[in-house]
C-alpha cells in the first residue's frame, strides 16, 4: 500500500476542486514522468493494466482469428483483453522458479496461427526464461507483449522490464507496485507501434465525473483502512461514510468474460495527479520491498521452503513474496496471522484467477495448490 498522507491531502483537494479535472497538461506530464522513470520512449496512461493491454493488442495489429501464447497462470482480465479483440489465447504451462512461461512449453505451442507471446514477470520477479523467450520470438518473428503489472521497476541487465519486448503494460491498481486505485500504462520503444497505440488512445474516452469522484474517495478509503495509525478505529467510520463508493477492480461480468460498459477508458487528469505523486515514491517503496524480501528469505531458510529465484543480472521488486508451501497452509490462512503476524496472499486461487481452472497444466496446478504470497510492505 503505497498511498500516504500526502496522497490523501491531494485527493481531498481534487475532490473539492472539480474544475481542475480537465487540465490535460497533468496527464501528459504524468506520461512523460513515467516514460522517463521507466526509460521507455512512449507511455500512454489508461484506467487499468487490462485496458493498457488492449492498447498493446491494437498497436500490434493483432486480428480476429490470430492466436497468442499466454501463461496458464494469470489473471482473467489478461485473456479477456484478447477475447474482446477476437483473438484466441493458447495457454502454456509455467515454471515454478519465478512463475513465468516455460520456454520449452512456448516452443512446443508455436503454430503458424500464433502471432505473439505474452510473458509476465509475476510477483515482481523477473521471469526465468525472459531472454530465451525473447530469442525464440525473434527466431519465429513473433511479437512479445510484456505483462509488467506486478513488476514496475524490476530490472534485467540494468534495463527496466518492459523495454525488451515490443510492447508492455503496467498496473497502478490498488494492490500493485504503485497505486492510483485503478490505472495503468502501455509502453513501447518503437515509433510505429507508438503511433498505433496513440490511435487507440485518441479513440478512448475518459471516465465520467461520478467514476472519478469515486476513485478519489477510494484513495481515502484505502489509506484510512490500511495505513492510518488509527486505522482500527477509523475503519468503521470510513466504511460508513464512503463504503458505498468502493470500486471493485474486477467486476462479476469480467470474471465471466463479459466486457464491462466502462472498459476502455484512458486516465483523466485528477487520477494522473495522484499517479505523479506516486511515481516520486516508486524507488523508495521498491527498495523497502527488497529489504522485506530478505526477511522472508531467512524465514524460508529456517523453515525449509525454497526461496523464489532471482535470475542472474536481475533486480526484482517483490510485489509479494511467493513461496510454495503445503496445500493445507494455502487453504487455511489463519496460521500466517498467528505465526507471522501477516495476512496471507493466495494469488492465484485458480489458474485463470479468480475465474476458472483450465486443465492440463501441471505446474500451474501446483502453483494454484501450493503458492502463497507474503507481503513485502509492512507498516
Ligand atoms: C498478472 C496480472 N496482469 C494484469 C493484471 C491487470 O491489471 P489491472 O487490474 O490494472 O487491469 C493483473 C491484475 O491483477 C494481474 O495480476
Short summary of the structure?
This protein is α/β, with parallel strands linked by helices.
Description of the molecule:
The chain is of the alpha/beta class and 379 residues long. It has two domains: 6-203, Type I PLP-dependent aspartate aminotransferase-like (Major domain) (Aspartate Aminotransferase, domain 2, 3-Layer(aba) Sandwich), CATH 3.40.640; 282-375, Aspartate Aminotransferase, domain 1 (Alpha-Beta Complex), CATH 3.90.1150.10. Helices cover 43% and strands 15% of the residues. The protein has helices spanning 5-15, 24-38, 49-59, 77-84, 103-109, 130-139, 191-203, 209-226, 231-242, 252-255, 269-279, 282-303, 327-331, 334-340, 362-370; strands at residues 42-46, 67-71, 74-75, 88-92, 114-120, 143-147, 155-156, 159-160, 167-171, 184-188, 314-315, 320-324, 352-353, 371-375. Helix 1 (5-15) runs antiparallel to helix 8 (209-226), helix 2 (24-38) packs parallel to helix 11 (269-279) and helix 8 (209-226) runs antiparallel to helix 9 (231-242). The chain starts with a helix and ends with a strand. The structure holds pyridoxal-5'-phosphate. Pyridoxal-5'-phosphate is lined by residues 48-50, 74-75, 77-78, 120, 147, 149-150, 171, 173, 184, 249.
